[in-house]
Specification:
alpha+beta, single chain
């Protein structure tokens, strides 16, 4: 029986007044998400179930930019992305430009299980969700009052260029190692405030937003999606681990602080290797994160490096 481990994140970003006001809520939510996933692993459930459960919890929590609480795009509605991957056999599933689906990660999991297509987007993804009987919600469920008020105020005051420059972003992610030695990763996001209609973020992209391979690691990226896409952030960590010259922490640090040391924006990574070692690295002011293992009680951090 291998060591079991879970690590989660709730986004790497700058400090905001909303985060300061809800700091205790964030810490409690991160702790609960990690513990939910870990309890599944303790019961012998696969890593894939654990990461799906962790992400589902965060999609349901209005504090995170995924599912309920997703960012509002330039047209005034929510567009969500998610992905999930099994390190045992490299099966994966993802969704992009998704509306109305309460838990995008659950739809991504259904795509993974079907094992035919990998990525479904827009109307096609919504049609598949309806076919599978996935729970849907009205648009109002996803948009919180404070987000809508902020959107209306900024829409009338900011130019398109200023809207594009806003950094109200966030992603949730989870990685896990189960008792059988299998790895899994999952990611979900509500995009960025005022993002252009049709914009797809890194959370929908296997090898960028998340990646899992039993021969290397399970890893999730967060921060500015475009930076993660350009640097194939998650996949690069996996390649470094396959080469066998770095620890999981060193691989994450290399991608964030060396390979992307000149990046003009926020980047963050969480990862776990086949032995249950956790790596976490970020360049932003803060990163919401938590981790727990068979020999480590749950640790929750937001500001502390």
């Amino acid at each position: 029986m291998s060591k079991i481990t879970v690590a989660i994140h709730g986004g790497a970003r700058d400090e905001t007044e909303f985060i300061r006001k809800n700091l205790n809520g964030y810490k409690q939510a991160l702790k609960e998400s990690a513990q939910i996933a870990f309890e599944l692993l303790k019961r012998g459930k696969p890593a894939l179930d654990a990461v799906e459960a962790a992400i589902t919890f965060m999609e349901d929590n209005m504090l995170f930019n995924a599912g309920r609480g997703s960012a509002i795009n330039s047209l005034g509605y929510v567009s969500m992305d998610s992905s999930i991957m099994d390190g045992k056999d490299l099966r994966c599933g993802s969704v992009a430009l998704l509306q109305k689906v309460k838990n995008p990660v659950q739809l991504a999991r259904l795509i993974l299980e079907e094992n035919h297509h990998i990525l479904l987007a827009g109307e096609g993804a919504l049609s598949y969700a309806k076919y599978k009987g996935v729970r849907l919600e009205e648009d109002a469920y996803f948009i919180l009052p404070h987000q809508y008020d902020m959107f209306m105020e900024r829409r009338d005051k900011l130019t398109q260029k200023e809207q594009d420059a806003l950094k109200n972003h966030g992603t949730v992610g989870a990685v896990a190692l189960d008792a059988k030695g299998n790895l899994a990763a999952a990611s979900s996001t509500g995009g960025t405030s005022f993002n252009r209609n049709g914009r797809v973020g890194d959370a929908a992209m296997i090898g960028v937003g998340c990646y899992a391979n039993n021969n290397s690691c399970a890893v999730c990226a967060t921060g500015d999606g475009e930076l993660n896409i350009r640097s194939i952030a998650s996949g690069y960590v996996s390649v470094l681990m396959e080469q066998g010259n770095m620890s999981i922490q060193q691989a994450c640090d290399y991608v964030i602080h060396q390979k992307n040391k000149n990046a003009k924006g926020d980047m963050g990574l969480i990862a776990v290797d086949p032995k249950g070692n956790v790596g976490i690295s970020y360049n932003s002011q803060l990163m919401h994160r938590a981790w727990i293992s068979s020999d480590q009680e749950v640790i929750v951090k937001i500001h502390e490096k």
